[in-house]
Design brief:
The protein is an alpha/beta fold. The protein has 25 helices and 10 strands.
Length: 563
């Protein structure tokens, strides 16, 4: 007897043998047993998941002379003829070759004739979506009101291409992609019956290569048996199937994380020499990143369909990764994948992509930039330059630095600072004149100065830490404290300048939380006094010149300014 391939030899002959589609097989069995059979069914789903096989089982069941427990007996004449593909009552039609309106008209004429032996005449149309629109429209009337002896079963992998008017006249069943574990169990049963020794790692690799398709997995197993004989080794599978070992992805990722672009390019060259498909490699690397992200966020590698050794490797690598970096890598790769199909030099394009991935550490996360900008907003007065050196931007209406200095000098003269010390440097801010009189409580400065009180320089050094202390409790107050000016520190009282009424009043209302954070950060009981006066750059608590390089690049590239 001639050899029969595995996919045909082990084709399911009972509904229970159909793997992973219980929601469909149980429904069809019950429909036949309860005499609630429809006149048209449409089976959709990925290739190799059992659509045509289930259609044949249904055809055998409805024409079986002795059905048993909702399954065909597979022994009567009708069952044997359908199994062998020679039944006159079951017509299997390829939608790709029978797709025109003329073919559909012929079919309409044929459905008038009753079955020759069985109870039903059954039309199984595979790749149903390939029938033309005119052909489908010609089938509408027959499909809506077929003769009582006719049963239509349509199979398609692209349900969206079928006309809604056709779908509304059929019972629809969605076939699912088969889970890898169930594919492995089926392959194990077939291997045992064939007398083939194969490891779980090899079966897992075959199941993954099959991508949820029973037929594809069985075809791969057939190919591997032809090469390996009675024992299938995992190492041989890698060469036979041209599959890239997961360890390669680990090595490339480690080099990318270390910023070693030269090592990455060497690994890519090695894969090209070995004959690996670069597009398949890139697709596999994106799956690797996805799995690594899942382990990183889930905290366990048990969610992956891989070997125990690989699970351990994923878990160890995931402990050191930032999920946001993995997302950025995935986003960059997925955005470039469509271009791979049209490029004239795939190798150069792939190398450019991985050089970019190796330099991700050179870029600053936009969230961090925005957080710094929000934490260190400039005041509503003079706008500080966004960067040191080069061109600088000023807010509209702001006088140049020389004119500002001249104006401040004139104001100090008007306040009496030129009269031989009649004015005090401690009673007026360094820049600008007071907008209003000092608030009550100014006499607190005249108390004895404590030795524990930090100096003004110490206050400036820890000012960001002080703001971070207030941020969770009073975000609005923290934002206002980013804009104040530090005037002086005397006798345990920190005097700050607020440039507007709102800041002055808001800081005054929140003295309790401010004092608590001052004590926590500076380790001593400090008091805060607020004066209403313009805030100069010299006194400002947080300098806008401290903005990081990424923010400066944003300002430069988009011709922007901080407000």
């Amino acid at each position: 007897m001639s050899h029969q391939v595995i996919s045909l030899k082990y084709r399911p002959q009972r509904f229970e043998d159909v793997v992973g589609q219980e929601h469909i097989t149980v429904t069809l069995k019950n429909a036949v047993q309860k005499n609630r059979l429809g006149h048209a069914y449409i089976f959709s789903g990925p290739r190799g998941t059992g659509k045509t096989t289930t259609a044949r089982l249904l055809a055998k069941l409805v024409n079986c002379e002795d059905p048993r427990d909702g399954n065909p007996c597979n022994a009567c004449v009708n069952c044997r003829e359908i199994t062998e593909g020679r039944s006159l009552d079951v017509l299997e039609i390829d939608g790709g070759s029978t797709r025109g309106i003329d073919s559909i008209r012929d079919l309409r004429e044929q459905v008038k004739y009753p079955p020759s032996r069985g109870k039903y005449k059954i039309y199984i149309i595979d790749e149903f979506h390939q029938i033309t629109k005119d052909g489908l429209n010609a089938l509408l009337k027959t499909l809506e009101e077929p003769p009582k002896h006719i049963l239509f079963i349509f199979a398609t992998t692209e349900l969206h291409r079928v006309l809604p008017t056709i779908l509304s006249r059929c019972q629809r069943f969605e076939f699912r992609r088969i889970p890898i574990r169930q594919v492995m169990q089926l392959l194990r049963r077939i291997s045992d019956r064939e007398g083939i020794r194969v490891s779980d790692d090899a079966l897992l690799l075959i199941a993954k290569k099959g991508d949820g398709s029973i037929r594809d997995s069985e075809s791969i197993l057939e190919q591997v048996i032809a090469f390996s004989g009675e024992e299938i080794r995992y190492d041989n599978l890698l060469d036979i199937l041209g599959v890239i070992h997961e360890e390669v992805y680990f090595n490339i990722f480690r080099e990318l994380s270390g910023g070693r672009a030269d090592k990455v390019l060497m690994l890519l060259d090695d894969m090209l020499i070995r004959g690996y498909d670069l597009r398949e490699f890139l697709s596999g690397f994106s799956v690797f990143l996805r799995d690594l992200y899942m382990v990183c966020t889930h905290g366990s590698a048990d969610i992956l369909n891989t070997t125990d050794n690989m699970k351990k490797a994923y878990a160890e690598l995931a402990e050191k990764q930032d999920p946001r970096t993995l997302i950025r890598m995935l986003s960059i790769i997925n955005s470039e994948m469509p271009n791979m199909a049209h490029t004239l030099n795939l190798k150069i394009m792939l190398e450019t992509l991985f050089i970019k991935l190796s330099r991700l550490q050179d870029f600053t996360d936009l969230e961090k930039v925005l957080k710094k900008v929000k934490r260190n907003p400039p005041p509503g007065g003079n706008a500080a330059p966004a960067q040191e050196g080069g061109s600088r931007k000023r807010a509209a209406g702001t006088p140049p630095p020389a004119r500002t200095q001249e104006r401040n000098t004139q104001e100090r003269h008007r306040n009496g600072e030129h009269n031989g010390g009649s004015g005090s440097r401690d009673t007026a801010p360094a820049t600008g004149s007071p907008l209003r009189e000092k608030p009550a409580g100014a006499d607190a400065e005249n108390s004895a100065e404590t030795e524990k009180s930090p100096g003004l320089e110490t206050i400036k050094e820890k000012w960001e830490e002080f703001i971070e202390c207030i941020q969770p409790r009073k975000p609005a107050v923290a934002g206002l404290l980013c804009q104040v000016g530090l005037l002086r520190m005397k006798n345990g009282v920190l005097v700050v300048a607020a440039g507007d009424d709102y800041s002055f009043n808001a800081l005054g209302r929140n003295q309790k939380v401010i004092h608590a954070c001052l004590k926590k950060v500076y380790g001593t009981d400090l008091k805060l006094r607020v004066e209403k006066s313009r805030v100069g750059e010299k006194e400002r608590a947080l300098k806008k010149g401290k903005i990081d390089a990424a923010t400066q690049n944003v300002i430069q590239n988009f011709d922007g300014e901080l407000l």
